[in-house]
Specification:
Blueprint (H helix, E strand, L loop, with lengths): L14 E9 L11 E6 L6 E13 L5 E9 L11 E5 L9 E3 L4 E3 L2 E8 L2 E6 L2 E5 L4 E4 L52
Antiparallel strand pairs: 1-4, 2-3, 2-5, 3-4, 6-11, 7-8, 8-9, 10-11
């Protein structure tokens, strides 16, 4: 054993700190003191609450994420160092923004785009995206798209810009065999007597 090597390590588990990488696009809405709801692996449905204590001033090298430090009270000593957690921070409600299903947004060779159908042809439109909500599977789209142009949400291979395309309306739902058939009636009824 070396002369200056530690003999013991003292650990205080009453207050824990979570280090989380947050996408840079979400950092402007964070603030010191914001509440964070956490789920921690191994604790099932139990929820923990923490608060944002520090926000790094720069993004991590090689990523666009910024480290955020969350303090978590650990009064009962249930938490230990090295555990994995998932946190959610409620941000202020904002004005509605246009979104698309995440499956509609594609990225190839660094270009983000969607496929629309305009004038009976496929059109590859470049888009800028914003926030992504993995819980709902939606992505904010910051680029204006033609209001009446359908956007392909399913993945298709080998699509070509300008290829002919037709969007068919969904077929009406079939009436179950056990349901009585109804016929339109006029406003008059005749009493039998």
């Amino acid at each position: 054993m070396a002369f200056d090597s530690p003999l013991v390590t003292v650990v205080d588990l009453t207050d824990m700190e979570l280090q989380a990488a947050v996408p840079a696009v979400d950092v402007p809405e964070l603030a010191i003191g914001k509440s964070v709801e956490l789920t921690i692996d191994g604790f099932g449905e139990r929820r923990f609450t923490g608060r944002v204590e520090r926000i790094n001033p720069a993004a991590e090298p090689g990523t666009r994420a910024i480290l955020v430090y969350v303090g978590i009270p650990n009064v009962d000593g249930a938490l230990r160092g090295g555990m994995f957690a998932t946190g959610r921070i409620a941000l202020a409600a904002s004005a509605p923004v246009p979104t698309l299903p995440a499956t509609a947004v594609r990225t190839e060779a660094g270009q983000t785009f969607v496929w629309t159908v305009e004038g009976g042809k496929l059109v590859k439109r470049g888009v800028m995206t914003g926030r992504r909500d993995d819980a709902t599977g939606r992505v904010e789209v910051k680029t204006a798209l033609p209001p009446d142009a359908p956007v392909l949400a399913a993945r298709f291979d080998n699509l070509k810009d300008g290829a002919p395309a037709i969007v068919k309306a969904p077929a009406p739902a079939p009436v179950p065999a056990s349901a009585p058939a109804t016929t339109p009636t006029s406003g008059r009824t005749q009493a039998a007597g």
